[in-house]
Structures
1.
Amino acid sequence: MIPDIIHKKRSGWTTAPNIGDYESARAEFSWAGARAALSGLPGGRGINIAHEAVDRHAGSERAGHLALRWLGKGGARRDFTYLELRDLTNRFANVLQGLGLAPGARVFVLAGRIPELYVTVLGALKHRSVSCALFSAFGPEPIHTRLEMGGADVLVTTTTLYKRKVADIRARLPQLKHVLLIADEAGGGAVPGTLDFSNLLNAASTQFEIGPTAAEDHALLHFTSGTTGKPKGAVHVHGAVVAHHSTGSLALDLHAGDVFWCTADPGWVTGTSYGIVSPLTHGVASIVDEADFDAERWYSILREERVSVWYTAPTAVRMMMKGGAAAARRYEFPDLRFIASVGEPLNPQAVMWGVEAFGLPIHDNWWQTETGGIMIANTPAFDIKPGSMGRPLPGITACIVEHLEAEGEPPRVRVIDTPDVEGELALKAGWPSMFRGYLNNEARYRKCFAGDLYLTGDLARVDADGYYWFVGRSDDVIKSAGHLIGPFEVESVLMEHPAVAEAGVIGKPDPVVGEVVKAFVSLKDGHAPDEALRMDILAHARKRLGAAVAPKEIAFLPVLPRTRSGKIMRRLLKARELGLPEGDTSTLEGGA
Ligand code: AMP
């Protein structure tokens, strides 16, 4: 039985939660106050994410405290104190300077969760370059698109990933000035046209002074997918660290003594905001696991590393649920205090499974690449309604809106005051980690706003108690295992296959990963829709896109439904796939 409410824990906390009372925390909160919890650069020279995350602690009594504990795939482990992390990131900032790069350069990293990735991101922030981590499971095509769109000056990657995914696209990236390779066992020896990451790092000084950094200086770039066209590069600024820090406190309840584990990859926004920045600004020990999901491994990390706050994702929770709560109960987790999850709907069963397996409910929260940090959350300050994303954090004003504009007009919306009515989730603009633009796409950025409201693209409702409930997305973007996948990117690669005439891609509901990518293709004349061809198209998609993005299923259709203006009607493909009503088909080519 799933209860409607899980009452908040009222006693037994060894450390009092950061929010005691929700209403008074909201009333008392101000972003200026949140900013005051950070130090800023010495001498009033502004605010820099890496200073708040690393140097602030390295210059304090926390210098020798564990900052990152890296757990390697093969059992290796490496610890980095705040002081060590300061020296390594100073070295990398000096490497960038030594390469003649000026602040504002674009520094990309394509690597698994290895220490060098963390040193690169933080060192680039110190140098005041713009830092972008790419998901290492991407294939060459998504990598190329992002390096090109992002105007990458520098790419840090491993020898293996370079040879597999970058070498063939490098000629198509004329602006890419430097490739720094992290040597790995499988990668072999030196590669012409590249530099050695470790050699450069070792030769660089550990002394670096971060230059003046304005709160509005660009710091982080994250790509996110849309329904049409190329991915969008959301730009974030150094001042975002105020929100990274305060949300870590309010939504994740971070305290200085915590051992925190965020399971997300820095190639996705959660893995940067909460896998790198937020825990370090709190001076906590942050666990980084290089390996992919494995339930037994995860239970043992939670226990052995004495994780006290754990931030994970619904797909992972559901994969653990498959093994049953008894698997978790074989372990004990005396240190685990708070569990949170993000990225996709957390079903009530998963919230309750937390109680069964760990004795703690899982606290769902909501945000997205554009918001830069957690916006709506189940905090320790109030009861959980399983299935709800929670309530807006202090400093955040959310509402549900309906659109009033006519087709083609700029957005115009009305706030829906009545509870429990579905509409688009909107947020009052102005929190520090809000994105400041989509790279080279001002028009698309503007379309995200109606007056002072940021329109999230998600459909939701709010109940009479102020709890938000996710309904769905208002676009065709697919969420698979917590990763946002743009159908257009997949369709474009499918269309490159010599047999494919047209392609339409949808998210097909899946009980574990939320949605799987399913493609519908029609074939050019002279090609038979047989199993061999299906496998060939699948293999082509996997090679070009990477397994995380490629379709899991391909179905052949004689023709795909299109609107009269020629757009593939993904909505109709989805309705037909799911046996749902086809809705309005008046714009269907040849339709009613
Ligand atoms: P991303 O920008 O990749 O982080 O994806 C953001 C999108 O993930 C949101 O716009 C939602 O569609 C979805 N999402 C994030 N958190 C939740 C949640 N707690 N419940 C439901 N959907 C979520």
Note: The chain has two domains: 34-462, 476-578.
2.
Amino acid sequence: MNLPRKLLSKSLVSARQSIRNKSFVRIVEVGARDGLQNIPTNISTEVKVGLINRLSETGLKTIEVTSFVSPKWVPQMADNTRVFQEVNKKKLISYPVLVPNLKGLEAAIKVGAKEITVFLSASEGLSKKNINCTIDESLVTAKTVISKAKESNLKIRGYISCTVGCPYDGYIKPASVAKVAEALLSYGCYEISLADTIGVGTRSSVEKMLEEVLIIASPDKLAIHCHDTYGQALVNVFTALEKGLTVVDSSVAGLGGCPYAKGATGNVATEDLVYMLHGLGAETGVDLNKLVEAGRFISDYLERPPASRVNNALFSKMK
Ligand code: HMG
Ligand code: MG
């Protein structure tokens, strides 16, 4: 009984020191993209834009807007151009969009996106299901897309899915993640978001994966993206903070899921993340009350309660 308690308090101290040294944790809000892409009923463009505009008022610095993927593969994102154009963009906020190939890049450039995100997988199974190619093929595409995006002075972020487990391939070796991360960084991504797509990661498996990736990349080049399927997301985020990462992806109201990753539920809720970070003494620049309102807006529209404990707790006090 004593050992885990000691270990935990040591972790808490080192994570707190790590956070205080940097003090600011940047949150990448993915609710309007990851959160909505998996919802089978058509969500109107107005509601998507309304959600993003509300999120823009919360103090968040990075808000994913949509993805320029094939509408045959993800029909919910088919209104990508309109959503991007109609959002009331604020000066100090970055509004990245997902791009799988050159066609997506061209559409993103045409609409005026300043930041794109390429998305690959550390598992062959998800790569084939999600983007219809092998990991090696996806690296070739990403290299071309990134090189073209650089010519247009775009910022480029990278995702790696299934960094600890895959719905098709099971356990994923940390070395497979490091290999893809190293390639993406060498092509020109400024940051790689390491995703636990189906939320199977534990403190131990996430730590092992991070330790391997940190051999080839410094913590300031990495972000963590945790789905909360098994309720481990906050612990796994905490593990990443402890390793010195200061960028965390999350989704308002805990929305989220990948249509091609069976069993993937929502991301860690932004409200829960902000509450934890503020409790640790980190700054986020985010107004939690405004965030709760944005979460309510989309949850009311979807006629479901937010999958955020903090949202539910604070909302009952706000009434
Ligand atoms: P494909 O079928 O191999 O592609 O799909 P293709 O080149 O043969 O094209 C098929 C059709 O799609 C053609 O149209 C293309 O023009 C069109 P047709 O001739 O049949 O009328 N097409 C496009 N249309 C619009 N925009 C495009 C585009 N590309 C082709 N960019 C492809 C390959 C990559 C396109 C497809 O598999 C795809 O779109 N996949 C996206 C899947 C997706 O969006 N998944 C969710 C995002 S990833 C995620 O959620 C994980 C993440 O959150 C991290 C984590 O948690 O793990 C990021
Ligand atoms: Mg995701």
Note: The chain has 13 helices and eleven strands.
